[in-house]
Prior knowledge:
mainly alpha; Arc Repressor Mutant, subunit A
Amino acid sequence: MHTELQLDNQICFRLYTAARLITQAYTPMLNTLGITYPQYLVLMVLWEKDCQLVNDIAHRLLLETNTVTPLLQRMEKEGLVKRTKGKEDGRQTLVTLTKKGCELEEQAYNSIPAGMAKELRACPLKFKDYEHLAEELDSIINTLNNK
């Protein structure tokens, strides 16, 4: 047997499993807000800077626009965002937060960071370890995204 092909030797499996379990931990908190994890990601992008092009949101999330567009359509139907055609280029679509989308920021702030801290309380990592982990993950993401 090739040890390089053993599941326990695959960084991709660890990353996949960690991402899946973290997303799963977010789910109950996001359910109380009435949003999904992908919607939460879009909202975080818009909370950082409102009124963005669909292309810019997709770029920030490292997704294709054809993945983000249906998500934004659902979010618009739910009253979280508003989509408008660009004035200079009608092919572009601007996305802005609605009042409901803006109000979710405070609700998320009041529940999610503390909720995730509680979920991870048994994890022995210290803050500097999280910073290092984030840097290492960014390095992997940047390497693979720039191919």
